[in-house]
Every structure is written in C-alpha cells, then in structure tokens.
Write a structure and sequence with these properties.
By secondary structure, the chain is α/β, with parallel strands linked by helices. The protein has helices at residues 43-51, 73-79, 96-101, 114-120, 122-125, 137-149, 167-182, 194-200, 218-223, 225-231, and strands at 3-14, 17-28, 32-36, 58-63, 66-67, 81-84, 155-159, 187-191, 203-208, 211-217. It contains ten helices and ten strands. The protein binds adenosine-5'-diphosphate (ADP) and magnesium ion.
C-alpha cells in the first residue's frame, strides 16, 4: 500500500492561538481512516490545514508524493483533495443539480460523472430540481458528499459527517461510506461518534487539545474502552 497522505510536525495557529501541536498522520490508498476527538480537540483545524484553508505554520504535508504544505485550497482541490466541511455550505437558491455542478474541479477526470453521482444517491436523483435550501439536514449532507465526488477526488475529507443527523440518516450514511470504500475511494473522516467510526473505518487517530494521542487499527481501538473513555466520552 502506498501512502496517499503523510503529515508530520504540523503546527497550526489562529492568529496567536496555537491550536495544533506536532500533528502527524498518514492515510494509505483505499483506506477509511478516522480522526476522533471531542469538541474543540482540533479535528476541523486539522482538516482546514490539509485543505489549504488555514495553512499550517510549520510541518509538512505530502499528498500523493508531492510536498504541498500551505498550498491554497484551489490547488489542493486540483491535486485531488475533496473536502466536505462540517457546516455543509449548500447553496440554498441553487438546485440540487446546480449544487452538484459546482463540485466539478478543472482538470480532474475520473469515474464520477453527473449520472453516476445521481445513481449513487437516489435521494438526489429523485429531486434534481429541488432548491438546496429546502433540503433536510440529511439530504444536505448527502448533497455535500455528492458534490465533493463530482470533483473526482483521490482523497475525500469528511468533517464530522454524522453530526446532527437522525439515526436513520446516519445508517444511510454508513452504507454510503462502506459502498464508497468498496469502490476504492480513500476517505479521511473526523468523528466523535464511536459507533459510527467502528462501523466504517480501518484505522483511528485520536486528537486531544491539538495533540495526536493515539493511532491504531480499528480492532485495537474497539477493545480499548479505557482509551475511548479518556478521550471520547462526554
Ligand atoms: N477561527 C478560530 N479562531 C480562534 N480559535 C478557533 C477558531 N476556530 C476554532 N478555534 C479553536 O481551536 C480549537 C480547535 O477547534 P476545532 O478544530 O474546531 O475542533 P473540533 O473540530 O475538534 O471541534 C478550539 O479550542 C477552538 O475554540
Ligand atoms: Mg469540528
């Protein structure tokens, strides 16, 4: 297996606030990896650092063998990094199909076309002309993931995808992620939901107060209830 993403010694700040400390993590091709941590632990900041939205002040990000620390977001997207932010950012006045069109990334080719994406998301296929703003939270979450796929990413970052969704939608999301995995999609997601992470991921990193405090396989993580208590339970 080849690493698609390797991060080392990453420090990120918001102004003078030092948020991430020496963060290191890796993702290999075809894996689903989960960055877990409580509210405020630094999950979103890590993803923003990788996506080029909050450039790290120190450290190295290597994506597909290329050093890309501090590249702007549009360059990371063109290199094949798809980012689904926590706050979803569906464009309310645009239709489902128009929102999907916005996910296209210049120069990116791959298996995902409008019709393949719609096939994968029946809930969107059945209402391509609905306005984004009228969708439920669950439908919007599906739409943001579908929109990211339109850019044919080599690595998909999903920031807390199950957050705030009803259990039935979380189950649907779980099926979708397992399907994407079967299709060979490489995914790095963040979560606080332990059950969800256990169901979809191969490996886990735990972040706490901006430090990576654990990295291990899913079986090791599953057995380690003490670790789950310490860093993840509320
Ligand atoms: N724009 C910002 N300016 C200053 N501090 C921020 C900003 N965004 C987040 N933080 C702080 O950074 C820390 C990590 O936040 P975040 O990465 O959003 O955590 P998580 O996604 O794990 O909940 C928190 O202490 C949070 O208060
Ligand atoms: Mg967050």
């Amino acid at each position: 297996m080849k690493p698609i993403l390797q991060v080392s010694g990453m420090h990120t700040y918001y102004g003078r606030s030092h948020i991430l400390f020496d963060v290191a993590l890796s993702v290999y091709e075809g894996e689903t990896v989960c960055l877990m941590g409580r509210n405020g632990a630094g999950k979103t900041t890590t993803f923003r650092s990788l996506a080029g939205l909050t450039p790290p002040r120190a450290g190295e990000v290597v994506f597909k063998g290329k050093p890309c620390t501090r590249l702007p977001a549009y360059r990371m997207a063109r290199l094949g990094l798809g980012f689904v932010p926590e706050d979803r950012r569906i464009l309310g006045p645009l239709t489902v199909k128009e929102n999907l069109e916005l996910g296209k990334v210049p120069g990116r080719k791959g298996p995902w076309t409008m019709s393949r994406v719609l096939d994968q998301f029946p809930v969107l296929r059945d209402m391509p002309h609905r306005l984004g703003g009228t969708l439920s939270g669950g439908e919007q979450q599906m739409l943001t993931i579908a929109r990211a796929l339109m850019g044919n990413p080599d690595l998909l970052l999903l920031d807390e995808p199950s957050e705030g969704l009803a259990p039935v939608i979380v189950a649907e999301l779980r099926r979708l992620l397992l399907q994407l995995k079967q299709m060979g999609t490489t995914i790095l997601l963040s979560e606080q939901n332990i059950r969800f992470a256990l169901a979809v991921t191969d490996r886990v990193f735990i972040i706490d107060k901006g430090h990576i405090v654990y990295s291990g396989g899913i079986d090791d993580f599953r057995r380690n209830t003490e670790l789950q208590q310490k860093y993840l339970s509320v």
